[in-house]
């Protein structure tokens, strides 16, 4: 069995990690910390976990508790991960960080986009980007993995096949994406209160959302990214617009190019039908479609996913499976919860 620890298990991504680990046949959760909920039964905070973890109590973080484990997930804020990761790397088999602390390879970008100086250039260079569909070979045997942002997962998987193949131009790409409220985390905030979110739909992070440089790093394209908050619990729908590079494609040729790029990927669903966030609920799948508009000359690619599953914890478990040489789909769902 793979011995797993979770730092920050009391947050939404931590709770999702616990859910996925419970259904993983080769994983055993040994330690789960949540400093703000230390001493609390996981099943009290999250009754959905009661069947699998009736006696699990959240602990306070101590690096010694994790020593020697096979995998440790970090579900904590960026600067907390920056402090904790050096205490664990090379003392455990693999550290998988769900924050952005080790995502951007250019450390000089952190003050601008995240508001802090990156103090660990060596670890930053060692970190492997945790998106198996694009970085599978690099993930094998990785000791430090930086999992992608939720918006980044959707936009990058939608755009990369067309950018890398030269079908669309790598400049002037627009990504218009909406996320469920869970993307803001469990902490109490005015912007995520029911009375604030219900019956509302709003854009935020105009021109300066921190996922912008990450999308550009993965796709190799220049991107104008605008996120929106939708009145739903989970899900991301990203609509991406790009100009053709050279001869105009067709809708059929776009779908064929994306389907060919992902032909061996277990969690990529490419089809003509319009993606729906609810179709991905609880799964590790990304649903994608594409169109070419002859009237305006634009290529349009849409991607839907569950922001807490594939966009965070599910993607992290998938990366763990690849890193450890385990069957990649173990512990992960391909069929959504519906209705």
Helix tally equals: 12
- At the first level of CATH, the class of the largest domain is Alpha Beta
Query: Structural class, from helix and strand content?
Result: alpha/beta
Number of strands: 13
Strand order of the biggest β-sheet: 8-9-7-10-13-12-11
Query: What is the name of the CATH topology of the largest domain?
Result: Dihydrodipicolinate Reductase, domain 2
Structure description:
By secondary structure, this protein is of the alpha/beta class. It folds into 2 domains: 2-126, Rossmann fold; 150-307, Dihydrodipicolinate Reductase, domain 2. 30% of the residues lie in helices and 20% in strands. It has 12 helices and 13 strands. The chain has helices at residues 12-22, 42-45, 63-66, 78-88, 110-113, 121-126, 132-139, 150-164, 194-197, 212-219, 251-261, 309-324; strands at 2-7, 27-33, 71-74, 94-97, 128-129, 144-146, 173-179, 202-203, 223-229, 236-242, 268-270, 286-293, 298-305. The strands form 2 sheets. A 7-stranded mixed sheet has the order 8-9-7-10-13-12-11. Helix 1 (12-22) links the parallel strand 1 and strand 2. Helix 1 (12-22) packs across helix 12 (309-324) and helix 8 (150-164) runs parallel beside helix 10. The chain starts with a strand and ends in a 15-residue tail after the last helix.
């Amino acid at each position: 069995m793979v011995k797993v620890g979770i730092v920050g298990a009391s947050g939404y991504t931590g709770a999702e990690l616990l859910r996925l680990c419970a259904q993983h046949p080769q994983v055993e959760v040994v330690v789960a910390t949540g400093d703000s909920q230390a001493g609390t039964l996981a099943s009290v905070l999250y009754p959905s976990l009661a069947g699998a973890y009736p006696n699990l109590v959240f602990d306070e973080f101590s690096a010694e508790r994790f020593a020697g484990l096979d995998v440790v997930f970090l579900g904590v804020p960026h600067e907390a991960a920056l402090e904790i990761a050096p205490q664990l790397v090379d003392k455990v088999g693999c550290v998988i960080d769900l924050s952005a602390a080790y995502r951007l390879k250019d450390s000089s970008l952190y003050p601008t986009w995240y508001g802090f100086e990156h103090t660990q250039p060596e670890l930053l260079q060692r970190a492997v980007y945790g998106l198996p569909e694009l970085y599978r070979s690099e993930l094998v045997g990785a000791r430090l993995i930086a999992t992608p942002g939720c918006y980044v997962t959707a936009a990058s998987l939608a755009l990369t096949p067309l950018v890398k193949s030269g079908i669309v131009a790598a400049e002037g790409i627009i990504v218009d994406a909406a996320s469920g409220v869970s993307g803001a985390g469990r902490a109490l905030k005015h912007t995520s209160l029911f009375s604030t979110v219900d019956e509302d739909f709003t854009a935020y992070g105009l021109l300066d959302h921190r996922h912008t440089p990450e999308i550009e790093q993965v796709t190799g394209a220049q991107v104008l990214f605008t996120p929106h908050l939708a009145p739903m619990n989970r899900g991301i729908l990203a609509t991406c617009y790009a100009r053709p590079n050279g001869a105009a494609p067709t809708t059929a040729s776009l779908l064929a190019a994306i389907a060919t790029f992902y032909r061996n990927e277990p969690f990529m669903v490419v089809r003509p039908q319009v993606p729906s966030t609810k179709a991905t609920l609880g799964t590790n799948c990304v649903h994608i479609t594409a169109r070419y508009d002859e009237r305006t000359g634009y290529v349009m690619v849409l991607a839907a996913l569950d922001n807490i599953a594939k966009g965070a914890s599910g993607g992290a478990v998938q990366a763990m499976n690849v890193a450890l040489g385990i069957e990649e789909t173990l512990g992960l769902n391909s069929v959504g919860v519906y209705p």
